[in-house]
Amino acid sequence: MCMPGFANIAHGNSSIVADQIALKLVGDGGYVITEAGFGADIGFEKFCNIKCRYSSYKPDCAVIVATVRALKMHGGGPEVVAGRPLADEYLNEDIELVRSGCSNLMRHIGNIKKFGIPVVVALNAFASDTQAEQDVIKSASMEAGAFSVQVSNHHALGRPQRVLQQHELPPLLIRALDLHGSASLSFVYLYQVVDVRESRGGARGEGPPRGRARHAWLRQDLQAGGSEALRGEKIFPDILELISKLGLPKCHVVGHDWGGYVAWELVINAPDQFKSHVAISMSHPLVFSTSLNLQSLRDNWYMYLNTQDDIVDLYTKDDCAFYREFIIPTHPEADEVCARLKDPVAMNGMRNWDRGNPLASLYLAARTPGALTPYYTKVAVPTMGVWSAGDTYLLEEHMQQSGEHCADFEYRRFSRSTLQVTTRVTMPPALEQRISLFLRTRRVTA
């Protein structure tokens, strides 16, 4: 059942009551389609972060509607004016114009995937479209992480619009819902509603400052004791408390880099909260701390460097020349990494993590009797360890040794070209498929 998207123009979504009526009418086995207007950057964001939060409803799949003509406009095509004939660019094949406009579609796909929702692109075909133009859109959509692209020919072929019965839904949409499972397993909010001032002893109801003042507030927050707040033993209790406050059910956890360490802490200390665990590149904490060799010590040299006072100036000088040459010499998206690195808030996050979790303390704990006792209990949560060939800093043998500390462990090795975990939220397709399969099998047994 489809609900209109503009009952409230302020946020471009139908009302919660409208969705409740639709859900009641379709019953337990039905599907409700509700529109989030103004694109994935406005209406959809408000749908997820506001409407879903207050209704407790969570989407299983998102459908982005696109057309060749619209993407040509986004790619720099001539202005379209009501009452005037369309320019030739919109009526004839122009591959480069479509390809240029696909950057807009790819951004929308990325925005939606940030919420953990599978994306299906519905390409509304016009009679003037060419197969080559549609192929460009399909390729760009899949590259951006779409689950599938489906061509709708109702306009081009003149078919009348009609209401679909459940058994007539596109098979790939059903597959998207089935593969990713319940929305509660994957859907995430991009921010949490917290009373910031109350948590700091201020007046209730006052939030953090906005605009430039907010950036200054964030910098101060991260610099003033930020490293202590990012100590591993302090982070995972906060996450468990957040899970409790949100009322999340038993769930899956996937961790990489800093998040990989925190994910290990979660499944070690709160195994009953999680169905399964995927560790990308980051090995079990006990392995990382105790299985030392010269290579691992040398590979982690930059973590010592990150604790130094002049590190910001060093990393950002001359368009991040030092960082490019010595820290990320093989990174596939060096420009994007450096663009983020110049953000002082992002830089402080990296510095404070390494200051809050100094390697010397980890190595000292490994040599102090009883300090790591909790880690010797085998992880009860089913775990898949993933490592990519040619990882610059993390060792394959460490990930393999992690299996010795898990009751149920599966190891997967990917080629470096297949597994490139970058600054983007979109996960490489091969990795996403492997993880999805692992999580789906653990849904039944866990």
Layout of helices and strands:
Layout: E1 2-3, H1 16-26, E2 33-34, H2 43-55, E3 62-66, H3 68-74, H4 88-91, H5 95-113, E4 119-124, H6 131-143, E5 148-152, H7 154-157, H8 171-180, H9 196-199, H10 211-223, H11 226-229, H12 232-246, E6 251-256, H13 258-269, E7 274-280, H14 285-290, H15 294-299, H16 301-305, H17 311-327, H18 334-341, H19 344-356, H20 359-366, E8 383-388, H21 396-401, E9 409-414, H22 429-445
Parallel strand pairs: 1-2, 3-4, 4-5, 6-7, 7-8, 8-9
Helix pairs in contact: 3-5, 5-6, 10-19, 12-13
Structural summary, described in words:
The chain has helices at 16-26, 43-55, 68-74, 88-91, 95-113, 131-143, 154-157, 171-180, 196-199, 211-223, 226-229, 232-246, 258-269, 285-290, 294-299, 301-305, 311-327, 334-341, 344-356, 359-366, 396-401, 429-445; strands spanning 2-3, 33-34, 62-66, 119-124, 148-152, 251-256, 274-280, 383-388, 409-414. It has 446 residues and is α/β, with parallel strands linked by helices. It folds into two domains: 58-185, Rossmann fold (3-Layer(aba) Sandwich); 215-445, Alpha/Beta hydrolase fold, catalytic domain (Rossmann fold). The chain has a four-stranded parallel sheet with strand order 6-7-8-9, with helices on both faces. It has a three-stranded parallel sheet with strand order 3-4-5, with helices on both faces. The longest helix has 19 residues, at 95-113.
Short synopsis of the structure:
The chain has 446 residues and is an alpha/beta fold.
What best-fitting shape do the alpha-carbon axes yield? globular
CATH architecture level-2 label of the largest domain:
3-Layer(aba) Sandwich
The CATH class assignment of the largest domain is Alpha Beta
First-residue to last-residue Cα separation: 33 Å
Low-confidence segments? 1-5, 162-169, 178-185, 195-226, 417-426
Main sheet summary: 4 strands, parallel
Mean pLDDT metric = 76
Count of discrete structural domains = 2
Strand content: 5-15%
**Main structural class:** alpha/beta
What's the total count of β strands? 9
CATH superfamily grouping of the largest domain: Alpha/Beta hydrolase fold, catalytic domain
* Helical residue percent band: 40-55%
* Strand line-up in the sheet with most strands: 6-7-8-9
What Rg, in angstroms, do the CA atoms define? 24 Å
What is the number of helical segments per DSSP (H or I, 4+ residues)?
22
- In the CATH hierarchy, the third-tier topology of the largest domain is known as Rossmann fold
